[in-house]
Amino acid sequence: MDNKQPRNYKLDKLIEYIGNEEDVLKDMIGIFLNTTPDLIDEMNKGLQAESYDIIGKNAHKLKPTLDIFGIQSLHEIVRTIELLAAQQKNMHKISSLIEFMENTLNTVYLEIKEDYNM
Amino acid sequence: MEAFRIFIVEDDIFYGEMLKHHLSLNPDNEVHLFKTGSECLKNLFKAPSLVSLDYSLPDMSGLDVMKQIKKENAEVPIIIVSGQEDVSTALALLREGAYDYFVKDSDVKDRLWNIIKKIRENIQLKSEISYLKEEIGKKYEFRNVIKGNSPAIKQIFSLIEKAIKTNITVSITGETGTGKELVAKAIHYNSSRAKKPFVAINVSAIPGELIESEMFGHEKGSFTGAITRKIGKFEQAQGGTIFLDEIGEMDQNMQSKLLRVLQERELTRVGGNDTIKIDVRLIVATNRNLTEEVHKGQFREDLYYRLLGLPIEIPPLRFRGSDILLLAKFFVDEFCLENKMDRFSITESAQNKLMRYPFPGNVRELKAIMELATVLSDSDQIDESHISYNSTDLSGNFLLEENTLEEYTKKIIRFYLRKYNNNILMVAEKLDIGKSTIYRMIKENQI
User: Fold this and answer.
1) Partners of B51 in beta bridges
2) What count of CB pairs under 8 Å joins A to B?
3) The CATH number of domain B140-313, selected from 3.40.50.300, 3.30.2010.10, 3.40.1210.10, 3.40.30.10
4) Hey, is B445 helix, strand or coil?
5) Is A91 strand, coil or helix?
6) How does pLDDT run across B207-234, given as a tens digit for each residue?
7) What is the CA radius of gyration of chain A?
8) What is the distance between the alpha carbons of residues B302 and B300, in angstroms, rounded to a whole number?
């Protein structure tokens, strides 16, 4: 993998957990690529239904994955979403945060796919 | 060591897979991943060594899953992993019996490793303990330990069998070296209490002022030097057996305290207020004649009757006939095995010499004599010359030798001559015989 430009993700922590075996690493990346969009979809559904509950639950589930993939720019964002959802306020702000998160993640997907030929 | 089976219950597929990969890095770990609580519960028959449980599962709460697991197997450690820090939930879970609680953050990895390490050590220790207990049990399978074919010892076997079946107090009497503690252990390790502790106290070996705290424990600060709380031997033996050796040496004050504990089946630590229920089987031993002590007023009569229970009197070795030879052979073989030596045989003359000796130190003395003989012998035989007695107490045995009266007379005179440094006048006076008799015997080389 040659990093031509700074990436939005960092796999150090993941490697720390699972070791540096490429097969395993690709497995985990595969799961990430498969499951994360679903969580974002769920959150968008929550937005439409104006359900703080659904949004909070999925933000909560997303949190460790984002941490493990070292997506620094989303570290605070996902926590803010969870907090606001728990406080049941500011759907508007939540909506823009989710949008930012989705965009960032889409970039991350592309970066990872490129880096790992997936 | 058998595989360490870890259940991960986690609905976050990514996180679950990651933990699984992570824990599988150690080939000793066998990791199973479940996405729901019910899936985990269905697989409990696989007997996990550790369960890592996500607190918020789609089908049921982590707490409910934990309760179900605990119902099946209360021993299995459960770690709750949660996405968020919530002290009150954590506390509630720990109170319900969770082994640990942590948040899915960066140091989960290290904490999991540490916990697994600790649990594995714990499991290993437990299995070592149960193995050792089993070994001890085998060691005290009483027909293997207490050897003999004499009617006297067979009588002991039948009494031990009776003692094993119930919780009756057993009082063992016997001369020194007859194996009182061995009998006590044989009873304990063959009884239903075998898996609980056997605790022995030698009453005569503990200074009078310490014995109460030794037996019943003490609270911190109850007397000078009591810097911490101490659990007494009775409490240590909880569920098991306590063996009080040399009970005849117990002073009167302690006797009444012991009596109270035995009557109430509960005790109070020295300086403490709480009463503690105790469930111990009592075995006592003495080489003193307790009946006599009772008559002399040295031993409380009420305690005496309470302790008497099933009396087992171990016969002295000299009354056990050919058991002496059987045991002699056994000790020689055992010694050779322990020291990786070839087997020895015992010559007939050596056997005769053994059979003539009274063994005031009983089996313990025989063991020492045979071990010494094995060392002294240069061949593969133990003969008369290798058997040496150190004991000076020849009374009692003397008559067992079945000599003629003439031989007895010579022996007695020889003994006294040695004792009084060949002072013939003194010996004549002591034995009330004429000194000329002694002179004549010496002259005729009879002595």
Assistant:
1) B7, B78
2) 53
3) 3.40.50.300
4) coil
5) helix
6) 888 899 899 998 888 787 777 888 899 9
7) 15
8) 6
Domain ranges of chain A: 12-116
| Of the partner residues B17, B56, B84, the one whose CB lies closest to the CB of residue A28 | B17
A80 neighbourhood in chain B, CB within 8 Å: none
Contacts of residue B121, defined as CB under 8 A and 6 or more positions apart, other chains included, come to none
User: Which among B14, B19, B84 has the least Cβ separation from residue A35?
Assistant: B14
Task: Return the C-alpha torsion angle B301, B302, B304, B308, nearest 10.
Answer: 140
B140-313 and B317-386 in the same fold: no
Q: Where are the beta strands (DSSP E) in B217-277?
A: 217-218, 230-231, 241-245, 266-268, 275-277
Side chain identity at residue B400, one-letter code: L
Contact list, B109 vs chain A (CB under 8 Å): 16-17
Q: Tell me the domain boundaries of chain B.
A: 4-130, 140-313, 317-386, 403-443
**Helix and strand totals (H; E) in chain A:** 5, 0
B133 touches chain A (CB under 8 A): no
| Cβ–Cβ contact B22 with A under 8 A | yes
pTM: 0.54
Q: What is the tens place of the pLDDT at every residue in B76-108? A: 889 988 876 677 878 888 888 888 888 876 577
DSSP alpha helix (H) spans, B54-107: 62-72, 87-95
Please state, in angstroms and rounded to a whole number, the distance separating the CA atoms of residues A48 and A45.
5
| Class of domain A12-116 as given by CATH | mainly alpha
**Sign, Cα dihedral of B31, B33, B39, B40:** positive
- What is this model's ipTM? 0.76
CA distance B236 to chain A (A): 44
Q: What percent of chain B has pLDDT over 70?
A: 95
Find out whether B14 and A38 touch, Cβ atoms under 8 Å: no
| Spatial contact of B208 and B251, defined as CB atoms under 8 Å apart | yes
CATH 1.10.8.60 fits B317-386, yes or no: yes
In DSSP terms, which residues pair with B395 in a beta bridge?
Answer: none
- pLDDT category at B109 given cuts 50, 70, 90 is confident
Tokens of residue B291, six digits: 């009946």
For testing contact with chain B, the best of A61, A65, A72, A112 (most B CBs within 10 A): A61
Nearest to B234, CA basis, from B288, B275, B185: B275
Interchain pair B14, A19: CB under 8 A:
no
Residue B249: both structure tokens together: 């040496």
CA distance B91 to B63: 12
Alpha carbons A38 and A69: distance in angstroms, whole number: 17
Instruction: Please state which CATH number belongs to domain B4-130.
Output: 3.40.50.2300
Q: Which residue of B has its CA nearest to A39?
A: B12
